[in-house]
Amino acid sequence: MMVSDYMISFIGGNAVLIAQWVNALAGNSFFLIALSGLSFVTFAVSLVILPLIIARIPGDYFLETTPGFLQTLPLLPRICLLVIKNMAGVVLMATGIIMLFIPGQGLLTIIVGVALMNFPGKKRLELMLLRMRKIRRVLNWIRKKKGVREFMFP
Asked: For residue 71, what pLDDT is reported?
C-alpha cells in the first residue's frame, strides 16, 4: 500500500477523487514550486511579524474586561478599523491553519488571528487554546525577548 493510500484511508472521503487530485498535482511542477514558495514566505513572515504583534498586545489582554481603544473612537473610524482588524485576523488564522501542515508557527499564528477578530465565543476559544502550557510559555518567552511584561493569564 502506498503512502497516499494510507493518507486517504486516514482522512476518509472519496478515495478515487483524492487519488485523482494528488496525481493531477504531482505532474504540475509550477504548483509544487508555488507551494514551496508559499511555505517559505509564510514561515519567514511568521518569524518576523508574529513577535511584533505579540509584543504589542497588552499584558492584561486575556483578563481584560474594560472597553478597548476602538470603543472610544467615533462610529465611522471604529467600523473601518474593525473591518481591517477582522480581515487581518482572518488572514492570520487561515495562514496559521496552513502552517499546521507546512513549516511555520501555526498555533501561535492562529492565536494572534483569533485575538484580532471579533466574534461570539472568542474569549472561550482563546481560553481553550491558552490551557496548553506550551502556548503560554512561548507567548511569554517572545514577550520577554522583546523586553515587554509577560501576559497575565486567568
From this structure: 72
Task: Give the per-residue pLDDT at 3.
Answer: 47
pLDDT of residue 30: 75
Residue 82 lies in a domain: yes
Provide DSSP, the chain.
--HHHHHHHHH-S-HHHHHHHHHHHHT-HHHHHHHHHHHHHHHHHHHHHHHHHHHHS-TTTTT--S--GGGGS-HHHHHHHHHHHHHHHHHHHHHHHHHTTSSS-HHHHHHHHHHH---TTHHHHHHHHHTSHHHHHHHHHHHHHTT-PPPP--
- Is 26 inside a domain boundary? no
Domain count for the chain: 1
22 in a structural domain? no
Say if 98 falls within a structural domain: yes
In this predicted structure, what is the pLDDT of residue 25? 65
Residue ranges of the chain with per-residue pLDDT less than 70: 1-28, 31-32, 35, 64-70, 103-104
For residue 97, what are the domain limits?
Answer: 38-145
